[in-house]
């Protein structure tokens, strides 16, 4: 007797890596990235319908991880979608300094780096 039922082909089951280091090395599975990319493109399309000159600026939650950074960078379209690289703004922070110790959210220093990176990216549009 099977338990749990059948997963549909569009609901690929992805086993979570055992360690953070393993996660760092693991590429985003194609079905998950495709879905994420679709959400971002759909959001940008809806935004552009309301504001034709709208710009979308995106960052990776873990900027040092190429497995997150590279797919997001690939969304840049030369005009409306911009990847803002946070890593140069936080590269001197150790991983524990980047996260709150009790839940893994960004620390105050990560938020400061993000604000600086976004301000620098937005500066040409503010003049």
Indicate the topology:
Elements: H1 20-25, H2 30-50, E1 56-58, H3 66-73, E2 81-83, H4 87-90, H5 95-98, H6 108-126
Number of continuous helical runs: 6
* Integer average pLDDT: 83
Judged by helices, strands and strand pairing, the structural class is mainly alpha
- Biggest sheet layout: 2 strands, parallel
End-to-end CA span: 66 Å
Percent range for helical residues?
Answer: 40-55%
Tell me the total number of β-strands: 2
Spatial strand order of the main sheet: 1-2
Report low-confidence residues grouped into runs of 5 or more.
Answer: 1-9
Strand-and-helix sequence, N→C? HHEHEHHH
Q: Kindly estimate the percentage of residues that lie in beta strands according to DSSP.
A: under 5%
Q: What would you call the shape? A: globular
Summarize the structure in words.
The chain is mainly alpha-helical. Helices cover 49% and strands 5% of the residues. It contains six helices and two strands; from the N terminus they run H-H-E-H-E-H-H-H. It has helices at 20-25, 30-50, 66-73, 87-90, 95-98, 108-126; strands spanning 56-58, 81-83. The chain has a two-stranded parallel sheet. Strand 1, helix 3 and strand 2 (81-83) form a beta-alpha-beta unit. The longest helix is centred in the first third of the chain and has 21 residues, at 30-50. The termini are far apart. Residues 1-9 have low confidence and may be disordered.
């Amino acid at each position: 007797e099977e338990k749990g039922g059948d997963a549909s082909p569009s609901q690929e089951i992805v086993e979570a890596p055992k360690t953070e280091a393993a996660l760092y090395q693991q590429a985003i599975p194609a079905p998950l990235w495709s879905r994420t990319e679709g959400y971002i493109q759909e959001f940008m399309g809806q935004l552009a319908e309301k504001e034709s000159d709208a710009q979308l600026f995106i960052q990776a939650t873990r900027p040092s991880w190429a497995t997150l950074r590279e797919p997001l960078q690939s969304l840049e379209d030369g005009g409306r979608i911009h990847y803002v690289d946070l890593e140069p703004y936080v590269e001197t922070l150790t991983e524990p300094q980047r996260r709150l110790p009790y839940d893994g959210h960004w620390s105050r220093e990560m938020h400061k780096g993000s604000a600086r990176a976004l301000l620098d990216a937005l500066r040409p549009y503010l003049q």
